[in-house]
Amino acid sequence: MEFKPVTRPARLHLLRMHLFSRPLEVPHRLRAIVRARESSVIVLTVIIGMIAGLAVAAMGEAVGLMHQLFFGLDPGERLSGRSRSIRFGPS
Fold it and tell me: DSSP assignment of 16-34, as one string?
C-alpha cells in the first residue's frame, strides 16, 4: 500500500468538514441566564436588533459611496433621480 500525501483541496475539504460539522453551540452560562429570566430574552433581542440595524446602516452607506464612485453622483443624490445620463468610472 502506497502512502499518498493529502493534496491542498483535500486539506481544505477536511478543514471545512471539521469546522462546520459541529452545530453552533451557545455557552452554557448564557443559556442559563436566558432561561432563568424572560426579561433577558428581551435584552438579547434588543442587542441582536441593534447589531442588525448597524449592519444595515453600514451597507446603506457603502452603497451610497459606491454610487458616488461608480456613477459620479453628488453626496445625497439618488441614482433613480438622476436627470442626466450615467457615465461609468470616476468623475
Answer: HHHHHSSPP---HHHHHHH
Task: Kindly report the pTM of this predicted structure.
Answer: 0.57
Q: With contact defined as beta carbons under 8 Å apart, do 79 and 67 qualify? A: yes
Residues 71, 90: contact at Cβ < 8 Å? no
Number of domains in the chain: 1
Q: What is the pLDDT of residue 31?
A: 80
Whether 20 maps to a domain, the answer reads no
Give the residue numbers spanning the domain of 53.
25-91
Question: Is 29 part of any domain?
Answer: yes
Number of DSSP helices (H) and strands (E) in the chain, helices first = 3, 0
- Cα(87)–Cα(24) distance, rounded to whole angstroms? 46
> At how many degrees (to 10) do helices 28-36 and 38-71 cross?
120
Q: Which residues of the chain have pLDDT under 50?
A: none
For residues 46 and 52, what is the distance between their CA atoms, to the nearest angstrom? 10
